[in-house]
Specification:
This protein is α+β, with helices and mostly antiparallel strands. It is built from four helices and twelve strands, in the order αββαβββββββαβββα. α1 runs antiparallel to α4.
Length: 329
């Protein structure tokens, strides 16, 4: 009976020991992916910002509000998946900025197409920024699962280029261990948005005046490394209008300058969401693989112990001592 039990335990030990690496290195890369129908929004604010008005004069405003939405386009992702034979996510993004009076300041749509598992960009029809076709390299919006302590290429929608975003160290943010990344985009001439705040004015009309638009930013992200999700972000953002007849004798005017930060309620929501998703990823990458491996070792040890006991010869039963016979005369 002991021999049979030890064989069963040995089989279970082998099963759990083999399941441990399979779960981590085979199942996880295939099961962990961004859902195609994901929707999320975020509100950022730049307080005490500088803005240009319709008469091209700089003015101070109490606050600029920026609403960013990411909406998964399931229909578009399914079409691309049929062509490429891989899991693809299509995010239709919109960045909408408004002044304290609720008037539109900026309106920039994007379509971001990427691999659902690795977050690598996928080049397909429809990939664009503000209606212009682009070919992204690197990442945007989200880091890969199991983010590493290294630099990544990060796509900048204003310049339509990818540039290094540098790992700057590990920090603690609201009880989470996060990796801090920073990217600086130097002053670069960029396109005017197709949808401008002034009604009836088009980018083509502005271009005829000789005016150009320039942009620089310092981009900061605090990324939870297990999920690859940013829990907080900031930008020190500046835009200038330079040259042209509309500025008169001025060489340039600040179109926008502000320190853009996530609003507090969205920080709390994002941290809570990332904490719950982090637990799911850790179950597949750490807790279950190590748990199965430990269980396999324990079952192996128990199997060997039972096997050793089954091979031990039975000890003879102790003989009963003879009762002394009475002495008869």
């Amino acid at each position: 009976m002991r021999r049979k039990a030890s064989l069963i335990l040995l089989a279970l030990a082998v099963f759990f020991a083999a399941l441990s690496p399979m779960l981590r290195w085979y199942a996880f890369p295939r099961l962990a992916k961004i859902p195609a129908n994901q929707y999320q929004d975020m509100v950022l604010e730049a307080r005490d910002a500088t803005l240009v008005d319709n008469s091209l004069q700089e003015k101070k405003v109490s606050k600029i509000t920026i609403v960013q939405t990411l909406k998964g386009n399931v229909e578009a992702s399914e079409k691309i998946e049929k062509t490429l034979g891989r899991d693809v996510v299509v995010w239709d993004s919109l960045s909408y900025a408004q002044d304290p009076d609720g008037k539109m300041v900026a309106y920039i749509p994007e379509r971001y197409i990427f691999d659902a598992h690795s977050q690598d960009p996928v080049h397909a029809t429809g990939e664009m920024v503000d209606g212009d076709p682009v070919k992204r390299e690197g990442i945007e919006f989200k880091w890969p699962f199991r983010t590493e302590k290294r630099d990544y290429e990060y796509f900048d929608a204003q310049t339509r280029t990818s540039n290094p975003i540098h790992y700057k160290g590990t920090q603690n943010f609201r009880g989470l261990e996060v990796y801090y990344f920073e990217q600086t985009i130097p002053w670069t001439q960029v396109k005017f948005p197709k949808k401008l705040p002034v009604a009836g004015i088009t980018p083509e009309q502005i271009a005829k005046t000789g005016m150009t638009r320039w942009y620089t930013t310092v981009r900061k992200f605090w990324v939870e490394p297990v999920t690859g999700a940013p829990v907080y972000g900031e930008e020190i953002h500046k835009e200038e209008l330079r040259g042209g007849t509309l500025l008169g004798d001025r060489e340039k005017v600040t179109a926008f300058a502000g320190h853009v930060k996530m609003r507090e309620d969205y920080i709390e929501h994002t941290v809570d969401l990332v904490k719950s998703n982090r637990l799911l990823v850790l179950l597949m990458t750490t807790y279950l693989p190590w748990g199965f491996l430990t269980l396999g070792v324990l079952l192996l040890a128990l199997s060997l112990w039972l096997e050793a006991r089954s091979r031990r010869p039975d000890e003879p039963a102790p003989a009963d001592a003879d009762e002394p016979e009475p002495i008869t005369a």
